[in-house]
């Protein structure tokens, strides 16, 4: 597993570079991290560390500031009028010194994309797995559930808790949740306890770089994976999703090619999104997804079971002492 950058620490260091009498927008700080999509994450980090750096010097895209910011900025010579930095461009700081860590993570995703195999390498599947992750404070709790495909009977459940430090940034979810999932699935792979194919709560090819967490997990472990999400991260539906009928498949295109599909399981549920991750093609992914859908369920059974198991484990952890929590590993085997 590659070493992850400490985005929180780097963000605080970047903000510390903003001199008195200058401001930066959340977007400018995100650009210094390597991707403007991280602007919301920058805001979340600064909200938690208001007194650990000159966070008051980071303002909204239009210069809007809070009353507290206005007082601090005016004391530093930045004019405020009607709740905004007056003549924002004059006081905007952009000269950050940064190695742009998010761009390096994009390179990792691009390398994963080159290694993906979007073709099935087996004809029969007897077991299916599902992996999802919930949170208990700073801990990520991954759950893996293995089911018999023919009956959808749960065969076993495993969970693993591990600290998560990487913030949530759209299209970088893998770097937040992958370390926990990877640790759990690697142990199960070593025990020959993985299913024939694994459904992942996260996207595969329906991703800005067509290499979401389902693909990254699949490539790094060299296992067949299918991505399942409740919202569309990237791609264009072939029709209005509001018109998709129960049981109907609506393909999603990226660059003119079909990269995934939306599927509405019931009349009373929203569509979810299916995409191949690794060692499976789109049509096989859709066929298997339909096989693991129950008539009254909004999500495939492996994902639903994994979601429930991770939530139960996370709730249990919230009642553990910090000392016990740090020692938790695999547990809840059934």
Automatic annotation (TrEMBL):
The keyword DNA damage applies. The keyword Ribonucleoprotein does not apply. It is an enzyme of class 3 (hydrolase). InterPro entries: Endonuclease-V (IPR007581), MethylDNA_cys_MeTrfase_DNA-bd (IPR014048), MethylDNA_cys_MeTrfase_DNAb (IPR036217), WH-like_DNA-bd_sf (IPR036388). It holds the Pfam family Endonuclease_5. Its EC number is 3.1.21.7. It is found in: Cytoplasm. The record marks 168 as: Interaction with target DNA. One of its GO terms (cellular component) is cytoplasm. Signal peptide: none annotated. It catalyses: Endonucleolytic cleavage at apurinic or apyrimidinic sites to products with a 5'-phosphate. Keywords: Cytoplasm, DNA damage, DNA repair, Endonuclease, Hydrolase, Magnesium, Metal-binding, Methyltransferase, Nuclease, Transferase. Residues 11-78 form the Methylated-DNA-[protein]-cysteine S-methyltransferase DNA binding domain. DNA repair enzyme involved in the repair of deaminated bases. Selectively cleaves double-stranded DNA at the second phosphodiester bond 3' to a deoxyinosine leaving behind the intact lesion on the nicked DNA. This is Endonuclease V. The lineage of its organism: Bacteria, Candidatus Bipolaricaulota, environmental samples.
């Amino acid at each position: 597993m590659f070493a992850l950058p400490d985005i929180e620490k780097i963000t605080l260091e970047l903000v510390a570079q903003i001199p008195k009498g200058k401001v930066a927008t959340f977007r400018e700080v995100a650009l210094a991290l390597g991707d403007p999509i991280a602007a919301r994450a920058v805001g979340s980090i600064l909200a938690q560390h208001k007194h650990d750096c000159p966070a008051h010097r980071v303002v909204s895209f239009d210069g809007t500031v809070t009353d507290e910011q206005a007082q601090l900025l005016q004391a530093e010579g930045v004019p405020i009028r009607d709740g905004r930095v007056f003549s924002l461009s004059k006081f905007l700081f952009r000269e950050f010194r940064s190695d742009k860590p998010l761009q390096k993570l994009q390179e990792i995703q691009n390398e994963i994309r080159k290694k993906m195999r979007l073709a099935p390498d087996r004809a029969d599947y007897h077991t299916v797995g599902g992996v999802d992750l919930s949170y208990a404070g700073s801990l990520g709790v991954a759950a893996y559930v293995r089911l018999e495909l023919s009956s959808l009977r749960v065969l076993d459940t495993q969970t693993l808790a591990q600290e998560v430090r990487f913030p949530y940034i759209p299209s970088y979810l893998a770097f937040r949740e992958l370390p926990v999932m990877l640790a759990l699935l690697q142990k199960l792979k070593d025990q020959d306890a993985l299913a024939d194919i694994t459904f992942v709560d996260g996207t595969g090819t329906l991703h800005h770089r067509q290499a979401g967490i389902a693909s990254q997990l699949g490539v790094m472990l060299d296992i067949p994976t299918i991505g399942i999400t409740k919202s569309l991260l990237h791609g264009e539906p072939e029709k209005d999703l509001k018109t998709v009928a129960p049981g109907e498949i609506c393909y999603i295109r990226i660059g003119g090619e079909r990269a995934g599909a939306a599927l509405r399981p019931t009349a009373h549920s929203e569509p979810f999104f299916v995409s191949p991750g690794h060692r499976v093609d789109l049509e096989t992914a859709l066929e298997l997804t339909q096989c693991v859908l129950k008539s009254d369920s909004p999500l495939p059974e492996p994902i639903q079971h994994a979601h429930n198991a991770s939530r139960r484990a996370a709730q249990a952890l919230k009642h553990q002492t910090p000392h016990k929590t740090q020692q938790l590993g695999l547990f809840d085997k059934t």
